[in-house]
Amino acid sequence: MINTVAWFEIATDDPQGAEKFYGELFGWSFATDEGSAKNGMDYRLVGYPGGDGPRGGLYASGGAFPGHAVFSVVVADTEAACARVESLGGEVVRKVVGNEHGPDFAYVRDVSGNLFGVFTPPGAAAGA
Question: Which InterPro entries does the annotation name (predicted)?
Answer without folding.
Answer: Anthracycline_SecMetBiosynth (IPR052164), Glyas_Bleomycin-R_OHBP_Dase (IPR029068), Glyas_Fos-R_dOase_dom (IPR004360), VOC_core (IPR037523)
